[in-house]
Amino acid sequence: MRHFFLWTLVLCSSLGFAQTPAKYTISGYINEKGSRENLPGATVYVPKLKVGAASNSYGFYSITLPADTIEVLISYVGYKAQAFKIQLNKNIQLDIEMQSNSLLEEVEITAKSEESISEDVQMSKIDLPVEQIKSLPALLGEKDVLKAIQLLPGVQKGSEGSSGIYVRGGGPDQNLIILDDATVYNASHLFGFFSLFNGDALKSVELTKGGFPSRYGGRLSSVIDMQMKDGNKEKIKADVGIGLISSRLTLEGPLKKNKASFLISGRRTYIDFLARPLIKKYSEGVIAGYYFYDLNAKLNYNINYRNKIYLSGYFGKDKFYLRDDQSDATYTQKTEAGLQWGNATATLRWNHLFTDKLFSNISLICSDYKLGVKFKETDDFGSFDLKYNSGIRDYSVKGDLDFFPSANHKIKTGLVATFHHFTPNAVVYKESSEPASSKKTVIDATEAAIYVEDDYKITQKWRINAGIRLTNFNVRKKSYINPEPRLSVRYAINKTLSVKASYATMNQYLHLLSNSGYSLPTDLWVPATDRVKPQQSKQVALGLAKDLKIKEMDFLVSLEGYYKSSKNVIGYKEGASFINIDDINPYTTRKYTYEDAVTSGKAESYGAEFFLQKKAGKFTGWVGYTLSWTWLTFDELNFGKRFPARYDRRHDISVVGIYKLSKKISFSAVWVYGTGNAITLPLSTYQLKDHSSQYSQTIVSQQALSHGYPVTYNDNPIVNDYGERNSFRMASYHRLDVAVQFHKIRKKYERIFELGLYNAYNRKNPFFYTTQVDRKTNETKLIQISLFPIIPSISWTWKF
Q1: Is the pTM of the predicted complex or chain greater than 0.85?
Q2: Pick from 22, 345, 372, 381: most CB atoms within 10 A?
Q3: Nearest to 270 by CA among 286, 292, 239
Q4: Nearest to residue 198, comparing CAs of 254, 258, 153, 264?
Q5: Whether the predicted pLDDT of 739 surpasses 90
């Protein structure tokens, strides 16, 4: 019997069934030296085994390897790579501090720098270094994250100067914008010309346009995931910036050295102070102004190695005000008007490390967006007072688990539940001595999702990220349950070239009602209901990814083609708007809701994108090109025929370059080109004289059903003939921006002085078109209105 067991053991060994070699785990946190700021996305690579791992959103990594003597390389863009020789015979906790290259003399790094684009299974994703964003020239010197994202392939800008983004044919509401786990609903300041994200407070910015991992959901087109800095854990630091229209201040430092830290970053414009003397001089009795501010704050505390707590928040507001007093001895007339909107978010997060292979995060999140309009007029005949409010508030709980079973295998799973509180309309108005009248619409809804995703490197050539997300939405006794399968596949042709493919289904249960096609504060967020179905999209993408080395310079190159179909995309019916929502329709004597104002249809987007990027070295930047088509089809619009979306652009090009001449001087330039937007213009205007005819009555009835009030002149309806929707193309858009930065570095501080030119060759780009009748020829002419000529900017920044 003893010989039998012995021969069995020998046979099993020869067949490969011997005991598996011992494996051990190396894990820890990767931080920035000098601040102990966590570094997400840093690469841990073992050349001998050709395996690697990346740190998660909180800087944690874990890699399990066979027992051996190995070399481990740690790298992160903009930081000095490090190498460690390790005798792996037990589980090892290895925390890494990485030193920024900006603090060093020029260093030649011959080791593998980071996980390459050809190795990563994720496609349609771009990471933008925040320091690169802050080096770009900008309108009036205001560094803007969303405008930097507009320069990437597959992303179209809304209009001249706007920070609105349209990704692969989707509208502005189809972008999930996340700041420290909190959803931001309106990301615009100054009616869309600036975004609310202050680059001084941000640590990382990541855009995903397709092949969405299962952990993301709720939108159809893109995910913009931003993380705030944690705050310096070793010393107090300050950044002060002064520009033409705003100033900013950032403070960070330790509350308890190496244990707890804080960050507070604020910005405010002073347009109102600059404009007030001019208004007073040229408009007697008028006081008017506009300003915006934002505030980012964050606290974090390392309880111990296995537990960390973060508390972060954003608070911002835009406010326009007007007071006009035209009273005199014989007549009294006073007018007050105002418009304000703002966002507030708060996130409490708890990181817990169960084992060296299992990492968890639990978040409690609140997000609040509000819009308010007021108008009050008083004269000798009476008074009128109107207040209008709208908004959305979310309360969410979210839990995520990261599991690292082996060096080639990573599993993420989690769940999220959100309570939505919608207020599409809240109106209070009072006229003279009449009692105040008010109306308010409130809609509550719950949204939940559970997901799992598996990133698995099957062989050196094949790698997949497969997952599924199950979503549920409940509103007004209506429940939607939808599965969302996701799959990304990478096949390595060789060490530097790979083919990638992805498929993703997305559902969106929130709609943005917009008349303009731009993201304005008057746009309304409303939920899907039993009458308005949720939006759904299916997207497939196929591409090539190449790591390119030319004369010791590293480039990332990608070429992607995509096709996306969407259904239940909504738009206002002809003539409808948010103004009349909740009115009693005089023709039907029933309440007119947003569900009556909208119609749903389909969208189809397809195209190709090219991207060439250089992230490190004296010269950095990228070139992006997009060839795309976007079509919309609504049964109730454009006679049921498909038409191009407003943001459909055939060609879109961006060229971005940043050159560091020396430690003291750097140059940057941006050139963009885009096919003109598709818009609708009236072909003719006529008046229906015979008000009593059947045709006339039909027109009035259609307008009454669409928005309650027919347009008339002398009691006769006015009709515009627009022809087919979006059948006219605006002129092409192109622009060159340049900037130069002068750095003065001292032992205790650094000063940056920047000069910039927006629209350097003074291109008259179209903002909108209008018509004007020539009095001499009686011909109607098309007039192009341009917004921004060449605009210089100047700014100072001090870092202490």
Answers
A1: yes
A2: 345
A3: 292
A4: 264
A5: yes
